[in-house]
Amino acid sequence: MTSASTQVLSFKRKALAAVAALTMAGVVSAVAAGPASAATEVCGPFCISVFSSELGTMDQPNFVEAVLGGGGANVGQPVGLKRASNTDPSEDILPGGATGGGQVSDFYADGLVSAEANSHYGNLDAVQQKYAPFRIPTGLCVGLASVPSQTEGLTLQPCDDPTTVWVVYAPAATPAGYFPIVNASTTDFSRPFAMHLPRNEVASGKPLQMQVRHLQFRTGEKTLPARQLWGAVFGELE
Known about the structure:
The protein is of the alpha+beta class.
């Protein structure tokens, strides 16, 4: 293996760890297979694609996280799901954070997470989702315009905004490879605000803006509906 290939493989492993994807054997196998392209070829193995378990699978994500409304790098630009494409730069999103991702406690140390959130989630994995069309950083991340509220839409926000930190929420019973994604600025820790796919937008056939809603626990075992469960993949989008 060349030095360049080794660096790519190392990056991919670290990025997957940032979203807890190293716990998924199938994804680890895909990473170990070598470099692959993400939304655009120039983004290569560095970008990650978040998808809804309601609409896709690890093998076929179908719709992935993207910046809507033409893909402009503007504060407040809506973020949602678009048909997976390997030529669409609005789907180029880099995982990371001020410390390269890691745990909620790392973001707390950087001043992006409150002491209360850190006390609840400090040992959980967390990540920022940095918008980087054609792998060019914009300084904007997927976040919220304010402290989370029911049905608030996901938008681009400055990466130093606390609403741009997302937590892989482990205390929920989920199918292997899928997980809820909680916003770290939530103030409700019994039913935190998390990424949610609205039913009406699934049926519309239009680009799908994501929202945050309280986690909708169905049983005492904390099972969740598919529209609140997400996966993350590297690899060429078709």
